[in-house]
């Protein structure tokens, strides 16, 4: 295929295969700043900016680079003429072996563009997806502080818009297997024609690791990246619609999600790190149906319905009925996921999402818990509790919910609920640990209601 894009300020028309990784495209052009570390989104060595947003270039396919603007470390400044940020890295002694540094610099630039004067926790969060084997983190943080102090973030121009609005040019052979529809109706026609042969490309953060690990066989590819409607988050008639292609970053920063569904915003905020969050979508998270997926857990307690669409029309499936087994859903082979619908909750609904993994950031959940309840004059109502990462898919804990609804909240009741939740879950592995922590998280939620 031929793709048109701007790389470091230069318009390029490139020959590529649709699933070529942006990382390989860049390195073949001699732009070797972006490095291959893990090749699956875990290390940030390959981080670049795509339309101004931080992405891991090892997980971006060529088909999604068409029409877009790429910035790499080489586009900031040359060794003889580094920009303010690169200079700050040098002056603070942040560069040791240097392997992680181009990715670190790009993550820092993305952070300073969003938050020109971040505090230390914000810097740590902004760089959480970038690993440094030489453990030079303290000096790296100081370099970011230095560049921020020099007004680097304020000088970054906003994203200027798409490079072109025409589709990429596929070869005759590619046209049989790669589709990039510009409307949902067109996407549904393609899905109806090829059924199970279709692999959807959304943010490709599950797709590329699966491809690398031989878990996906690619026959026909339906790229959703031109379907702007699927990225929408809109409030209408007492409902909030979150489109299937809304990214974690969009979800965690959207004012309606933050004010009405903070548990969902929190789950998106705790999923991956910034480069993953900018790409990972709600639809991909649900359709992958991983037992460790974070977004379904709050969606279970918030009473979400999944909207599935096909040429036959749309159907709404309560999220409890969406998962059918390990990595299985009720999605039929002519359907695609359009988004989720959430009823606007009463202002008195309290909600929380907690997650525990093997490290503080960029970690898959080993345990996740979402809770919601109304506390009315000391009495609990409408209690819902869900747990993830225990079994093939996340589940509600109806026994524990029942034991709480209509009861007067007290520290003793919170202890009983913790015991009940521990008994009710049935983890596949690390049983005692998961049971104890799940109980503790349920107690934590209830005590937080008491304290407020
Ligand atoms: C480093 C790293 C860290 C991660 N951390 C977390 C984490 O903390 N929590 C978490 O939950 N996940 C995590 N993930 C997993 C992943 O980011 C999420 O599951 C993400 O939401 C997947 O969305 P995507 O858009 O990237 O999906 P893609 O990879 O594009 O697609 C995944 C699957 O969904 C299907 N699909 C996508 N969209 C649709 C649609 N609209 N209709 C039908 N089928 C569709 C595709 O066919 C494919 O089978 C992580 C991944 C990486 C690489
Ligand atoms: S190479 Fe590790 S995130 Fe891309
Ligand atoms: S400087 Fe060596 S990996 Fe970071």
Automatic annotation (TrEMBL):
Residues 1-76 form the 2Fe-2S ferredoxin-type domain. Keywords: FAD, Flavoprotein, Iron, Metal-binding, Oxidoreductase. PROSITE patterns: 2FE2S_FER_1, 2FE2S_FER_2, FAD_PCMH. GO terms for molecular function: 2 iron, 2 sulfur cluster binding; FAD binding; iron ion binding; oxidoreductase activity. Signal peptide: none annotated. Transmembrane segments: none annotated. This is Uncharacterized protein. It comes from bioreactor metagenome.
